[in-house]
Amino acid sequence: LAGTVPRRRPPGSEMGRRLTLLLLPLALLAAPAQAEGGTAAAAAAEEVKIEVLHLPEACSPKSKKGDLLNAHYDGFLASDGSKFYCSRTQNEGHPKWFVLGVGQVIKGLDIAMMNMCPGEKRKVTIPPSLAYGQQGYAQGKIPPNATLIFEIELYAVNKGPRSVEAFNQIDKDNDRKLSELEISQYLKEEFARDGKKRHPSVHDEILADIFKKNDHDGDGFISAKEYNVYQHDEL
Fold first, then answer.
1. Which PROSITE patterns match (predicted)?
2. Which DSSP category does 178 fall into?
């Protein structure tokens, strides 16, 4: 989800959902790192508790790290049951898209939604260390050291956007690196599929941001290694 539970930072200029997921290495809701040290018993207590509310008869494919998921979920404070987030009231009520296991949501949700199948519903309890920790998240009305409860309904499990297939789709000349021209052409194709009207400057903004965030060695190309944030062996 670009745009899942409340973000830590305000969003930038509007970018197509699929483009954002495909090419921008976002870390929108990474929870604060857990303090080092502590006893093994304390660590054991800091686990995500999962209650399956509904499991469909057909359970395939099961979600795994790097998959692109589509889901609705509500977030509550365990302390008093108050709701701090509802995906159905955001983005005209559309379910949220996000990549699982890569820090686009808080760590507790990345854990809670592993091995989940389309149509499944879960209620999960996430300790502070796997959510917003000692700092909390004032903008999202989440106090420090808050245990969170999410009710999740998963709609779709798709192959992740940083797959080998996606890389090869953009790499028209098969030279194992993505040029500005190749990505520019891909953006135009995605805009055409999306069908939304955008100011011409949006294309240039997205293209510049992609290279800023992915071209780590500054050579004007995005290599397979730079593109492949999930470290697939195939690349």
1. EF_HAND_1 (PS00018), EF_HAND_2 (PS50222), FKBP_PPIASE (PS50059)
2. E
